[in-house]
UniProtKB/TrEMBL annotation:
The lineage of its organism: Bacteria, Bacillati, Bacillota, Clostridia, Peptostreptococcales. Its EC number is 3.4.24.-. Residues 124-192 form the Oligopeptidase F N-terminal domain. Has oligopeptidase activity and degrades a variety of small bioactive peptides. One of its GO terms (molecular function) is metalloendopeptidase activity. Residues 213-592 form the Peptidase M3A/M3B catalytic domain. Keywords: Hydrolase, Metal-binding, Metalloprotease, Protease, Zinc. Belongs to the peptidase M3B family. This is Oligopeptidase F. GO terms for biological process: peptide metabolic process; proteolysis. The gene is pepF. Pfam families: Peptidase_M3 (PF01432), Peptidase_M3_N (PF08439).
Length: 606
């Protein structure tokens, strides 16, 4: 039941860790005060791994066997999760330390060994006579595990025989090849050209600096970066097409084998999400394209560019404005911005600051990026590298959203129902961000600041809702065509992707031909209908933050109950209780109404 956090980059460079004040470093000693306590849990994990193996083949022989196996699963998972999280966070403090790296690898092995020892549980439960299982569930102790068992039984129609499951497992390495090819090609083999920077310096395009170059104030730099980036991808288009086509075929293969009607249905099944949610998102965003056009027209006016191209979309507005926010000031801003969520919520945020949940600054060897982690038997922890700019402030309040969500969930739900789904994970973090934007806008002291913030907020909408929905639509179209028997080539992928860019941007932007190859650059297309979650999560957060600001306590109470529900319900049910029904198109439409209001405010400023 361990979830390894995303958004972790390579180790960053900075001062040595021992030169950073303790108050700015997370306190992992609360998890394990010494090596002896770690070793004790390692021994305990080994004992529980042996214990869980003893029930193999015996679950159907009596209620006590099943109950004891489930209790052992729960106890072992908690111990192993704590070891796994602790050793990896210690490793992330300074990746140069071999002892910490060795401990993190050891915890992975412990987790893997337990996974093997307990792998019989799901197949045996699925194979049990349902009448016998129903009889077991009448027991008070067994009733506690009802949702856990129900989740397993949902998979029964899509679970194969033991021999067939082994075959599927054995081909997983083969079906992983397309993504491996993408990784090797994109990150190892491709050579990007050099361009001339704003000051005449030579800059070699790479994956990191392209995102900076495309925001350059110098239009010539943006154009050169755009053409250098995508003309390079164009050279490898046939290899990328073969790789992506293979990935799509693999997803369709698994969906068919597991008796789903389509790849998209198979992908959404785990979260109990209907395809209507996916389609409603696309339909609602299509209807909002005229508002997107208005936003881009406002950008044209501000930038003084009549013939806007795709390489102009990311350039920020209010070029003279800059934020410099010391860390302690950031804490105060966050507390003020989140005041609409009430005193209880603020008290948890204050705990994060006072009880050293946060590892705030970079140091030599520290992992880059940011995440919120922890386990059921620890406080939440946040890793970040705060640098006194606006992005750092937003990153901090984003991760605090995850941490408070985890805090509420772990303090309200039992262990097995405390782990919330990815579909709702970004709602809490994005709600925090949107409340921060609202606070900063209300307290902006100049026109430049207001324009800067409005542009920041609108870009979050455009890139998270409109752009990710366009990606989701690309996935839907390509999978449907392959399922209909059409083999897709590089030209096919490019034609589909270019057509979508024309649909989303063609009324307001000169859609450059080279943008058609951008599909080759997007790694998320290898993650099987994942990107729509960014758009739905942002839409839900937008609607919820709007309710919180307009309704006050009733909306806050619903929202806090949502945070407390953890994994005890399916995502759509949780969001309905919070006040957003994502099966209804109007929920996305309400979020896009917020986008329209922001466009009006930007238009008034420029």
């Amino acid at each position: 039941m361990c979830n390894f956090p995303g958004n972790i980059q390579e180790a960053v460079m900075g001062i040595e860790r021992n030169n950073i004040e303790e108050k700015y470093k997370w306190d992992l000693a609360k998890m394990y005060p010494d090596k002896e306590s770690v070793d004790a849990d390692i021994e305990k994990a080994a004992e529980l791994t042996d214990k869980i193996a003893q029930y193999k083949g015996k679950l159907a022989l009596g209620k006590e066997n099943l109950l004891n196996a489930l209790k052992t699963l729960e106890e072992a998972s908690r111990v192993i999760e704590k070891l796994y999280v602790y050793t990896h966070m210690k490793h992330h403090e300074d990746t140069r330390k071999n002892d910490n790296q060795a401990d993190s690898v050891k915890s992975e092995m412990i987790s893997s060994d337990f996974g093997v020892a307990s792998s019989y549980l799901v197949p045996e439960i699925i194979a049990m006579d349902e009448k016998v299982l129903d009889e077991y569930m009448q027991d008070e102790d067994m009733a506690f595990y009802k949702k856990f068992i129900d989740d397993i039984l949902r998979d029964k129609p899509h679970t194969l025989s033991e021999s067939e499951e082994k075959i599927l497992a054995s081909v997983s390495e083969l079906t992983a090849v397309p993504e491996s090819v993408y990784d090797m090609l994109a990150y190892a083999d491709m050579e990007f050209p050099e361009i001339e920077g704003e000051n005449g310096e030579k800059i070699k395009i790479d994956h990191f600096n392209y995102s900076l170059l495309i925001k350059s104030r110098d239009r010539r730099v943006r154009k050169d970066a755009f053409e250098g980036e995508f003309s390079t991808y164009k050279k490898f288009q046939n290899t990328y097409a073969s790789s992506l086509y293979g990935a799509i075929k693999s997803e369709i293969f698994y969906a068919k084998m597991r008796k789903h009607n389509s790849a998209i249905e198979g992908s959404l099944f785990a979260d109990n999400i209907s395809v209507d949610v996916y389609n409603n998102l696309i339909d609602a965003v299509h209807e909002s394209i005229p508002t997107l056009d208005r936003y881009i027209e406002a950008k044209k006016k501000f930038l003084g560019i009549e013939d806007l191209h795709m390489y102009d979309l990311y350039v920020p507005l209010a070029e003279k404005f800059e934020y410099k926010i010391p860390y302690e000031e950031a804490q105060q801003i966050i507390l003020k911005a989140l005041a609409p969520l009430g005193e209880e919520y603020l008290s948890i945020i204050q705990k994060a600051f006072d009880e050293r949940w946060i590892d705030a600054f970079e140091n030599e060897g520290k992992k880059g990026g940011a995440y919120s982690w922890g386990c059921y038997d620890s406080q939440p922890y946040i890793l970040t590298s705060y640098t006194e700019d606006l992005n750092s402030l937003f990153t901090l309040i984003h991760e605090l959203g995850h941490s408070v969500h985890s805090y509420y969930s772990r303090n309200t739900q039992p262990y097995i129902y405390s782990d919330y789904r990815i579909f709702v994970a970004e709602v809490a973090s994005t709600t925090n961000e949107l409340l921060l934007v609202n606070y900063l806008l209300e307290n902006a002291k100049s026109k430049d600041e207001r324009i800067y913030l409005l542009n920041y907020y609108l870009e979050q909408f455009r890139t998270t809702v409109h752009r990710q929905t366009m990606f989701a639509e690309f996935e839907k179209i390509t999978h449907e065509q392959v399922e209909a028997g059409k083999p897709l080539t590089a030209d096919d992928f490019t034609e589909i992707y270019y057509g979508l860019n024309k649909k989303y941007y063609g009324n307001s932007t000169n859609v450059d031909e080279l943008i058609g190859i951008e599909w080759a650059r997007i790694p998320h297309f290898y993650s099987n209908f994942y990107v729509y979650k960014y758009a739905t999560g942002f839409s839900a957060a937008s609607a919820l933050s709007s309710q919180i600001l307009k309704e006050g306590k009733p909306a806050v109470d619903r929202y806090i109950e949502f945070l407390k529900s953890g994994g005890s319900e399916y995502p759509l049910d949780q969001l309905r209780r919070a006040g957003v029904d994502m099966e209804k198109k109007e929920s996305v439409e309400k979020a896009l109404d917020v986008f329209a209001e922001l466009v009006e405010k930007l238009e008034a400023e420029i």
